[in-house]
Write a structure and sequence with these properties.
This protein has helices at 21-30, 53-68, 91-97, 110-126, 146-154, 165-180, and strands at 9-14, 36-42, 82-87, 102-107, 131-136. With 181 residues, it is α/β, with parallel strands linked by helices. It has one domain (7-180): 3-Layer(aba) Sandwich (Rossmann fold). Strands 3-2-1-4-5 form a five-stranded parallel sheet, sandwiched between helices. β4 (102-107), α4 (110-126) and β5 (131-136) form a beta-alpha-beta unit. The radius of gyration is 16 Å and the shape is globular.
Length: 181
């Protein structure tokens, strides 16, 4: 891996409540564009997440090991090509704290672009040295929105085709606790 100062470090932020197959699709494509990918998990209490920040980080850790293999994923190593971090501050500050220069955003529908474009312009004003790259969701993942997946799960629907195995396990545990309480 190149020296830290020569690395192209990208940050892919989100609430990831829950982590979806669409998120994983963006991650798999983003790792090809940068030397190191930091996945930033936002606390974001305004979205009223069902899973705690720690649970969402744990889901992503499990999925990164499943996708890329234990030999490639050592979250304690500085040479690890993928890092998962929680954050509760301004996005551009999280990007800077992780020495990233590229912000990666996923777009599912044209309506996402309007919001993302506004965020991009604001981020350019706050941190002109950070570039934003938009990755358009593949066709099979365009309709997967975390909020809809969460709603389906809470109403007893099957979300197994929308989320990876570790997320499904965490959601089943969480929903079982809610039913019992």
């Amino acid at each position: 891996m190149p020296k830290e100062s020569n690395l192209r470090i990208g940050l892919y932020p989100g609430t990831f409540d829950p982590v979806t197959n669409g998120h994983l699709d963006i991650i798999k494509r983003a790792v090809k564009l940068v030397d190191r990918l930091v996945i930033g998990v936002a606390l974001n209490p305004g979205k009223q997440p069902l899973l705690s920040l720690e649970e969402r980080v744990a889901c992503l850790h499990e999925e990164m090991v499943r996708l890329f293999g234990k030999q490639r994923i050592d979250f304690e190593s500085d040479d690890c090509p993928i890092k998962v971090v929680g954050f509760n501050n301004l996005l551009v500050n999280c990007v800077k704290e992780n020495h990233a220069t590229v912000l990666i955003r996923g777009l599912r529908q044209a309506t996402d672009f309007n919001y993302e474009f506004q965020m991009c312009i604001m981020n350019q004003q706050l941190a002109p040295d950070i570039e934003t790259i938009f990755l358009v969701a593949t066709e099979q993942h365009r309709s997967i929105a975390s909020s809809l997946v969460k709603e389906v799960a809470m109403l007893g629907g099957d979300i197994s085709s929308f989320v990876p195995p570790s997320t499904l396990k965490h959601f089943k545990t969480l929903l079982a606790k809610k039913v019992l309480s």
